[in-house]
Every structure is written in C-alpha cells, then in structure tokens.
Amino acid sequence: MPENPSDSASATAALEASLLDLMWLASPALPIGGFSYSEGLESAVEWAGANCEAAVAGWLSDQLHLSLARGDLPVLAQAIAAWRAGDIGQALALNDWVLATRESQELRLQTGQMGKSLCDWLHGRWRDHDALAPARRALAQRQPSYPVAFALAAAHTRAAPRACLLAFAFAWAENMVQAAIKAVPLGQTAGQRVLARLVAEIPEAADAALTLPESERQAFTPGLAILSARHEAQYTRLFRS
Predict the structure, then answer these.
(1) What does the mean pLDDT of the chain come to?
(2) Could you tell me which residues come within 8 angstroms of residue 44 by beta carbon, excluding any fewer than 6 positions away?
(3) Where are the domains of the chain?
(4) Taking the model in full, what pTM does it have?
C-alpha cells in the first residue's frame, strides 16, 4: 500500500520537532548556569598539566570515557526509560544515586543547581500543557540532579535515547571547551579542534553507556575528585567548580 503523504509529513514534522527540542536542551543559552562550571578543569590547568591544547583534549577525552560514559550517560538513558514508563520511583532512585556519588562538594552543588534551574525552566515552558507535571513535581520535591532533570526534559520529546545522550554529551563538551578557552587560555580555533575530537568520540561513549549493565554503573574518578576539592581553595578562580 502506498505511503500516505500526510502520515509521512506528520512523521517528518515530529522528528524535526524532537531534533529542535534536543538542540534547545543542548544550547549554552539555556538558563541553567552550565557556563559557570569547569568541573575540575580549572584546577587541572594549575596542578595537572592541562595547560595546552593537546593536554586539554586528552583530559576531556578521559573525562568523557571514564566519567560520563560510566556514570551520567547511563543514568540519563535509564532515567529517560523510567520517566517514559511512568516509573517515578525508579527515576527518583537514579536521582538519589547521582547526588550520593558526586565526589566533592562543588560537583554536588553543581548538579543540584543545574538540576533545579532546569526544572524551573521546564515548569515555565510546560505551564499550559504539562503532560509530565506529576513527574516534574515529584523531582522538584527532592534536590533534582542535572542528568535526571535532563532526562525528564528529553523524555517529553520523541527522540530516541541515543540521540538524547548525544545531545547531553555535546552540551557538556561545548561547556568544557569554553571553560578551557578561558582558563588555559586557548584560542577559539584551538578550542574548535578540541571540540572536534570530543564530537568524534561522543558516539562511542553514548553506545558504551547504552549497553552498560546497571550493576556496572559507577562514579569513581579519584584524580578529578582531588582536583575538584582543591579548587575550593584555589587562589584565583573563574569558575564555580
């Protein structure tokens, strides 16, 4: 039977809407404060030798594969599934795991501030037709973590989980590169080369996160934790973490 043109047009429009929603969530203009954090990179510049383009690229690549791909990205995938299934209890359990496994005060404050800001933004955006209002209220009654709040927003779209993980990881990469440009400092062109490397590696990290068994999800980056803790007393600081 020939495909109905109107069905095809509707499907295309839905895909485009999902893509735009993910671009919006990944935008540095989203008012959640991501630009104000370096996630330990500012300390790494001073104490761990991340003071040139090659070193920054290696540092961020390690952080992508050793931290995000084993922690936040698996949480994101599992939380999207939970929100879409209406399993609020599972989503809140994942939120508690994120808060409990942040390895420094600054990193916990960051995920809490960004998570709350994203929940506040979602409330304003969905005020008139909030299909996920019960879920959003349940999360807001806790201290929302950023990955689980992002999962709630992503669950409201029709995007595939892998696409949601790619958007989340790209938003992280862009924020970290912008932090490196300021903290090292790097030039804009060098920053784009670092971003290009991360963009090439993000799909692998997303695929690893999607196939990671729940029992193997972890948050164990002691070097990053030490640098994050040292950042609290760093002599001069541009960023909040």
Answers:
(1) 91
(2) 50, 59, 227
(3) 39-231
(4) 0.93
